Amino acid sequence: MQAKEKKNLEDLVRIYTVLVFVVIGLLITRLVWLQLVETDVYASRADAQRNRLMAITATRGDIITSDGTVLVTDRPSYQLTVEYLSMRADGEYDEALINRLVRVVQDPELTAEKVKEICDANSGYLYKPVVLKKNLDMATVSRIEANRDTLPGVSVEAVPERTYLHGMLVSHVLGYIGEINQSELEEATVQAEQAGEETLYKMGDYVGKVGLEKYYDETLRGTDGYRQVEVNAGGRPVSDVKVVEPEAGNSLVLTIDADLQQTLETALDTTIAGLQSQSRSDKAGAGAGVLLNVKTGEVLAMASRPDDNVGQQNRAIQGRYIPGSTFKPVTAVAALESGVATDSETIYNPGRYWIAPFIKTTAPIGYYNLYNGMAKSDNVYFQEIGRRAGIDTIAKYGEALGLEGPTGIDLAYESTGDRATQGLPTAQKRQMYQNMAAESSDMLFDKKIAALEEEKAAALAAASTEEEKKKIERRYNSSIAIAKSDKLINHKWNSEWHAADTFNVAIGQGRQNYTPLQLAVYTAAIANGGTVYQPYVVKEIRNHAGEVIETKEPVVRQEAGISEETLTRVRNAMCKVTDVGGGAYGLFASFPADIQVAAKTGTAQPGGSGYRVGNKEYYDGLFICFAPADDPEIAFACVMEYGYSGSGSAGRVAKAVLEEYFNLNEQ
Amino acid sequence: MQNFYRLLKKMDFSILLTVTSIIVLGLFVLDSAAASKESNYVMRQLIFVFAGTAAIFVLLKFDYSMLKNYPKELYIASIVLLVAVLIFGVKRGGARGWFSIGGFTLQPAEFCKILLILSYAQFLSARREHLQTFQELIPCILFMVPPVCLLMLQPDLGSSLVYIFIMVGMLLIAGANRKILVGLFGGSTVALIVYLIGVWKFNWWCPLQKYQLNRFLVLFDPTLDPRGAGYNVAQSKIAIGNGGLWGEGLHMGSQSSGAFMPEQWTDFIFAVLSEELGFIGACSLLLLYAFLLFRGLRIAMLSRDLFGALAAAGIVSMYLFHILENAGMTMGLMPVTGIPLPFVSYGGSSMLTNLVGIALLQNIYVHRQRLIF
Known about the structure:
By secondary structure, chain A is α+β, with helices and mostly antiparallel strands.
């Protein structure tokens, strides 16, 4: 090579060297970026795609009655699973194996095609066993086990399944579970975040939807375990990293007694059936009853109808009913306690009250004091003492006895009763209602006035002569003026509480409504000397081994602050209801003398659309009672929609429940 | 024998040492990368390492310059091989590029690189004074058209690119007009990128199959084609990133042992190495390559004639592009093509070809001065 060529070559090689330097430098720079700068990002991605968690569902706790009857438990249910990879070796389905499996399972729906279809649908998660069939019967399980050798990769897995051992018994209280939905999941996540904890819930979990299952979900559900599996690119399990066993959920022991509950439910059903056969109550079918221990607030029985499906609401805590005459003990307490009436003062009943709207009474014409007034449920007597006490006093004692606001029972979705048309007509509620009523009345008249104005403008436009126009002006202006003054009158009327409203409230009608549970709580408070307990359904929480880990104590929500003297008089008056001449006389006639029942019947006239069919009018039947009157143990409240009368509907249920409680039906 | 011994002593031992280091490192990584395979990839690879090493010493005796006399024969031989493989070859990974001979498969596209480098070296050497105008350069470019077209018929896009890059590298060293070179190849690279963006964004016409196209397009959008080309690159980037500074250790890489990358013993072995040996290992490998390339270029410079210089430049270009393309692909810098990492990827043809390349470099080096006996 010539020297010049040599020199030239050296220059060219130098250029090439720079090129090599650039290429290698570029690659190393990229390495620095990936391995030194961004390494955490990639390391966590590698982790995430390598490790898979497979949840092992914890066994949910049992729910047991106070007398030891297991109502709900998790029973093992058997499911048929296969390993995807043993079904499909080398990318081809093992037809022989699948056919053997199909023959062994003997389910006409599980064909070879179906097996492949299910496997295909799960091919994204090779590490997960594919569930082919749930709820295997024992015969199928044993057939599969017998053929285990010829069915590689096939297994029978036991998974806990919620089982309600007594059908629909206590169903409204128990509630049910279902797969968690998006909003529940978000809510749980937000709550957990606020509490600074990790959420217990994940997609696909089963959670309590209503009732105890919901209220005590965290107690019942336990802690799911998991199997951490390391997988490869195809999702094929490479190794089990670790297995964390699930922790079984805790069990609930209820205050509810199985026998009492069964009696209550049967009584509801037979009473409803009886009512349906009578013309005046042929729409019966719904209702609820609650039996409380007056000394603790324990719920001894609680049932609601209808119960044809698990989605039905628990009317005992969610249904709101006008109390009818079962409210009269509150009016009595208000009058006696405020001193506007004494128990012995008599008031003459001329057939209807003498002040407008002259509400009539079904009690015979004559003189009434607290005792026969209560026994005969005299509307005149209670309107008069109610008028004297005034709405504020009545509301005050109603509130004291626990009729305002939720009872705080440990069940999900108790009605709060905080809307204008719900609960007691306290000053606040009345104001809320008046604002609402005035506003809607104003709106009505504004609409009417606007329509008139429009009509007038149209008529004016159509008019041809001045004369005609004047006529139209005159005619419409007077109608508009009338409407405007009507608006003012109505606004004023709706913005005020009227004497008649108080009369209605005093006899349990008008704008008030309560849940059967609230009625039971208030009855219990009258019975126990004025203590308003927070009712509860769960008395004990036990762990999986059966050890008691928490015992619930009675919680006093409030003391009514009513003198024993007043309460004694009201209790005595309620005793007259079941006595000779009382509204519920005869109902408890078979009871021994030492078990006297104090009660009050009620017939509510909701007056809603469903309650007036042609000339026929329907009523709700209500009943409250406690016993024994001299040393009360239990209080009971029951509402029977379309039951027509208190004693004839809800009263019958009360009788059956009390008989069971006092063991009177065994003789 | 005395003569052979003197030749041996004149060899560039630093190259031998470098290549040995790369091969040993590669065998360890291969052992890990192919752990899931039943047959012993390391043993099979070793057979070719020994065969190639033997070639280095056997070929040392012959002066490379005798090859100057057979440019046409070398060229025809490679065309025949490339045509034959299209007819008699077997398909692997969708490309008909392998001869199957007694348990081994051989890839003629690899061996032809050497044949064409030698043929082209003589071709350019003869035209050394006539590489300045566009007209003069046209035959030099046409030279590579038949082999590249034959490769595209397999189709083997990666090897075609290697051939083109070798051509450009050798033209550069031959002293071809750099303005034309840069204009032509820089221009076509830019044009290609613009075209690809056009295909990607505006659906321009494109003869490639969707999956082939995606191997390019993932460069612009790594989230594209997450189950195909995008998946491979995403997984190899995770592997490399997961390696960090020190790596997970041989056989310990979760990406590698979990087989998240396809063909991880060949195309994606750089990702395995980077995950298991970390930045330290991957950077060392790249530095070893850099040293090898610099020594190769030094041999080109010291060559006693232009033929030798061009042959050496051809070999260096071959290595350089393989390294850039293979490592660049695993890091998301280059399109996805199936070309091996020199001395590391599993593959007999590639190992043999690369070692023959070393043999050629050593031969040019030891014969840089006429031996005086």
